[in-house]
Design a protein that fits this description.
alpha/beta, Rossmann fold, 7 strands, about 35% helix, about 20% strand, binds S-adenosylmethionine
């Protein structure tokens, strides 16, 4: 969970009272000490599905944050790994970490919005980890279309997601309660802070990916506890 030198409760509340972008700028130096940084086990499972070291030319990590996925992607790339994120603070943190990561592929960062994809047919692989909660449900089709645009024909969108917990499970009600509180916050306060739980879930996301022209494969049971409910999705652009 939260580590000793991570953000205080007050800092997290202050972050949630500004825009998503500004909130991440504020928390960036302490972000890796929070549970919001995607655990290495998940990034390693994604990397394993993508393939061996130097098996692809170029990869894009969307909403790269401090570089959790890019650190693993770099070794898989022969040429370049690119991180897209709208937070200056998060990209600065990522630059240090990914620059020191295993591999010799060029490391590039681009400031941009995941909903206004600035790339066209450039990547063999795109990933996105720990950030689907920042995409509103009504924006998911546009988000997927943007990923498809960034990929070369035959390129793959590889990510991990979960299934909705049973209604009887406390996690279901905690997430729904958090989402209700965020909707109230966003109705009352501008700019909005977009963060919702239980989004982009399997199997709902399968039909959205297929509608956008992907062939979809799912790897269930790859991860061990406590991530054993996570599914690694490997979606190939036709
Ligand atoms: C929870 S962090 C996850 C960071 C990293 N991928 C990880 O898993 O550790 C979410 C990141 O998404 C970025 N982000 C959120 N919405 C975005 C958008 N619409 N366009 C670009 N970046 C976005 C934030 O700035 C932040 O760095």
């Amino acid at each position: 969970m939260f580590q000793k030198d991570g953000p205080s409760f007050k800092e997290l509340i202050e972050q949630a009272l500004v825009s998503t972008q500004r909130g991440y700028d504020m928390i960036a130096p302490k972000f890796d000490k929070t549970p919001f940084r995607t655990p290495d086990e998940i990034c390693l499972a994604i990397a394993k599905v993508i393939g061996p070291e130097k098996s692809i030319d170029r990869a894009l990590d969307v909403c790269c944050g401090t570089g959790a996925a890019m650190i693993r992607l770099r070794a898989l790339c022969k040429k370049e790994v690119v991180g897209l994120d709208f937070s200056d603070g998060m990209r600065e943190e990522a630059a240090r970490r990914v620059g020191a990561a295993n591999g010799d592929a060029k490391v590039t960062f681009v400031k941009g919005d995941a909903l206004a994809m600035p790339f066209d047919s450039e990547f063999d692989v795109a990933t996105c980890v720990g950030a689907f909660g920042h995409i509103r449900e009504e924006e998911e089709d546009a988000f997927i279309t943007g990923i498809a645009k960034a990929l070369k024909p035959g390129g793959r969108f590889v990510f991990a997601t979960g299934m909705e917990p049973p209604v009887a499970h406390p996690a279901f009600w905690i997430a729904k309660g958090f989402n209700a509180a965020m909707r109230v916050r966003n109705a009352l306060l501008k700019p909005e802070f977009i963060m919702y739980y239980l989004t982009f879930l399997w199997p709902d996301v399968k039909s959205k990916l297929e509608a956008a022209g992907f062939d979809v494969d799912a790897r269930i049971g790859m991860l061990e506890k406590p991530f054993d409910r996570m599914i690694v999705v490997d979606a190939r652009k036709k």
